[in-house]
Amino acid sequence: MSAxxxxxxxxxxxxxxxxTLTHQAFHTYWTHExxxxxxxxAIVKKHVLKYTQFHVDxxxxxxxxxxxxxxxxxxxxxxxxxxxxxxxMAVFQDPEYLAKVVPDEQKFLKRSExxxxxxxxxxxxxxxxxxxxx
Length: 134
What we know:
- The chain is an alpha+beta fold and 134 residues long.
- The protein has a single domain (9-133), classed as 2-Layer Sandwich (Alpha-Beta Plaits), CATH 3.30.70.100.
- Helix content is 43%, strand content 21%.
- It is built from 6 helices and 4 strands.
- A 4-stranded antiparallel sheet has the order 2-3-1-4.
- The relative contact order is 0.26.
- The model has no long low-confidence stretch (mean pLDDT 93).
- InterPro entries: Dimeric_a/b-barrel, EthD_dom.
- This is EthD domain-containing protein.
- GO terms for molecular function: oxidoreductase activity.
- Belongs to the tpcK family.
């Protein structure tokens, strides 16, 4: 699969923390320690255009859940953009990723429960784009 012309491929991975970690410990490790391993890989620098983390606010989620809203049961999500599916899959098949990143992920997340979505973004409105063109 390739994204339509002019679009980048967007991979989202939804994840849950290990039961042995507090939410704070999960968010702290993922924010400050895991990137040290992830961003040192040459293949990431070659193929990843953008990387963001989405950290779920557990207290807000609990309140919304109590109000009857259907809150997804995840602790966070990573979003990774690349030029093609092949570029992104090359990252996840790289021997350095398998040797360094996978063991690091096992320190803070349940890899077997992670769920992926892959596709492209259709930006229909963006405050960022509006302020850049003003």
